[in-house]
Amino acid sequence: MSSSGAGRPAGLIWDLGNVLIDWQPIRAIAAGVGLAEAERFMAADDFDFMAWNHGPDSGGTWAEAEAEVRRTHPHWAPHALAYREHFAASLVGEVPGSADLVRDLHAAGVPMWGLTNWSHELYPHAPARFEILRLLEDVVVSGTEGLAKPDAAIFELTIARTGLPAADLVFVDDRHSNITGANACGLDAILFSDATGLRTALRERGLPL
Fold this sequence. Notes:
alpha/beta; five-stranded parallel sheet
């Protein structure tokens, strides 16, 4: 499929977490230490869960990440270790309406890919649970590649794998920093807030929805 002539995008690249898959890390942590402790951990002034999680997302191992938290923040070690141990609990389900967009676009013959910041070790949970991922041509997993959004290199790698020009692709993500990074690489990037708004934005671009 080509956007030549029609001016519409030739394909889409989807972020996964909190765009297609409802990811709530606090649920995994709570499964290990209880909800009150999980909330205290996630709100802590002396520990940044998302920054810590970015290590495995960027290609590091969970063993390394957990050893580091034991060394630097031993009082938070049980909380941090609960995340990987109970990771499946963090995957709540499909984000309402988003998977329907994937199904509709797939049925219309629009090729789609995934680009996710996800650790190599934990990513297998996703295709095992979410059949929607089978409708994507491929998923670029940051932890597998050793590159993570918003680094330009992972956008360039993903664009190359699609075989399409960046200008012919739409990228959908829920984080401003990733939208900025995608735009810098020539992608038409849409900040996701809900599936209804996204359906409208994609239809306005000429996609068959």
